[in-house]
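**Archive record**
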Amino acid sequence: MPGELILTVDDEVKIGELVGLYLLKDGFRHRTALSGRQALEIAKKEQPSLIVLDVFLPDMEGYELCVKLRQMTDVPIMFLTCKDSETDKVVGLSVGADDYVSKPFSPVELIARIKAQLRRDRIVHDRRTDEPAVLATERLRLHVNAHEAYLNDVKLELTSKEFQLLSYLMQNAKRALPADRLLNHVWGYDSHLDTKTLKVHIGQLRKKIERDPANPSAIVTIRGLGYKFDEPLL
């Protein structure tokens, strides 16, 4: 983990300097981009291990940038922004971000989240060789090692976290999973992360795989506990 490159995208120079100071103290390398265009250039050339970005940028919205970054990399992406409403968070996570941190922020907590994302990303990549090669129901098929999902033989566009979450739910089909267990498995930490992040990703998955997202039958809510994948595996 130390030595990995973290890219911060924020036109507030002091924010980049503050984040960089804490990252360098922990042994990371750090680059700052002041615009979306510069971020895309750095991401393409230097392939950072994680990207932290703001919503407000001089040349494009952070949401638009996140979509563009997702087309070229599956590394963890975190929003760090003063836009802190639940709607803002839903939008950020739905365009492919893995986490959403509001300003003002604790640098110590931010670094902890960055480390957790990197640790979880590494575990997921290492774990693929130990998981079943294919998870399938009558409608849905996941090729775990290839990181591909198909619904009725049509390829699904899933973010990295959506794929990880669906894969874990399917591996535990018919078993009720507590929200904190899902958060810990997919995001790498649990108690200090609210369940909105999980709820947003469950909602996005339902839109992509359910016959009727308003009345889900594949990913069902277990009130007071968490969620369950309720379709039988083949």
